[in-house]
Write a structure and sequence with these properties.
By secondary structure, the chain is an alpha/beta fold. It has helices at residues 20-29, 37-43, 50-55, 74-89, 97-104, 106-111, 145-152; strands at 11-13, 32-35, 60-62, 129-132, 158-163, 166-170, 173-174. The strands form two sheets. It has a four-stranded antiparallel β-sheet, with no helix packed on it. A three-stranded parallel β-sheet has the order 1-2-3. The chain starts with 10 loop residues before the first strand and ends in a 5-residue tail after the last strand.
C-alpha cells in the first residue's frame, strides 16, 4: 500500500489473474477495477474474477479497451460480462442483469470517483440518460426490462441520448452536429 499501487484512486484494468488475497487487499484499500470482458475474451487473457470482487464490495466498472474489444457497445459489454461469469461459475445465477447494469452505470461512476455527479438518476446529478426503443422485434416481449436490455439490446436501439440535461440525439437524429 505504501508504494501507491492500491487505494481509492487506483483502478486495476483487466484484473484477470487476481488471487483471493489480492482481491481482499483491493477491498480493504478501496481499490477499484475496470473490467474489459470483450477484450479479455478476444485476446484470450482469461476471465476476471468479477463476481468475487463484487462480493467483496469492490467497485467494478465496464470498459472496452479500445480496438482490442472490436466494440464500444455497452450493451454488448454488459452481455459479455454476464455470459463470461455464468460460464466461469457454471451457473446462470452469477452476475445478474441488474449487476451488469450497475457495472455500466453507478459502479463505473464510482471507479472514476464521479459517483456524486453521474451513474444514477438523482436530484443534483447530471441528467445523463438514454431512451431505448423497446418496440423492436428482438426486444419483445418485455416482461423484465433489465434482462431484456442486457441480453437482447444493442447500441443501435438507443433512440434518444441526453447528456447533462441536453438532448444530443432525438429519435435517432443527432442534434449537436451535421452528420
Amino acid at each position: 500500500a505504501k508504494e501507491g499501487y492500491v487505494g481509492p484512486n487506483m483502478v486495476y484494468v483487466h484484473a484477470v489473474w487476481l488471487t483471493p488475497e489480492e482481491i481482499r487487499i483491493m477491498a480493504d484499500t478501496g481499490t477499484k477495477a475496470a473490467h474489459c470482458p470483450a477484450a479479455n475474451a478476444q485476446l484470450g487473457y482469461g476471465v476476471a474474477p468479477v463476481c468475487e470482487m463484487l462480493a467483496q464490495g469492490i467497485d467494478v466498472g465496464l470498459g472496452t479497451d479500445g480496438a482490442a474489444s472490436y466494440t464500444y457497445d455497452m450493451f454488448e459489454l454488459m452481455r459479455t460480462a454476464a455470459y463470461l461469469q455464468k460460464q466461469k461459475h457454471l451457473s446462470a445465477d452469477f452476475l445478474t442483469a441488474e449487476q451488469a447494469i450497475e457495472m455500466a452505470t453507478i459502479h463505473g461512476a464510482k471507479v472514476l470517483n464521479l459517483e456524486k455527479d453521474i451513474g444514477s438518476i438523482e436530484v443534483g446529478k447530471k441528467a445523463d440518460l438514454i431512451l431505448v426503443d423497446m418496440n423492436k422485434p428482438h426486444l419483445l416481449p418485455v416482461n423484465r426490462y433489465a434482462p431484456k436490455l442486457v441480453y437482447s439490446a444493442q447500441g443501435g436501439d438507443v433512440r434518444t441520448t441526453i447528456i447533462d440535461g441536453r438532448v444530443v440525439m432525438e429519435d435517432y437524429v443527432v442534434k449537436t452536429m451535421d452528420e
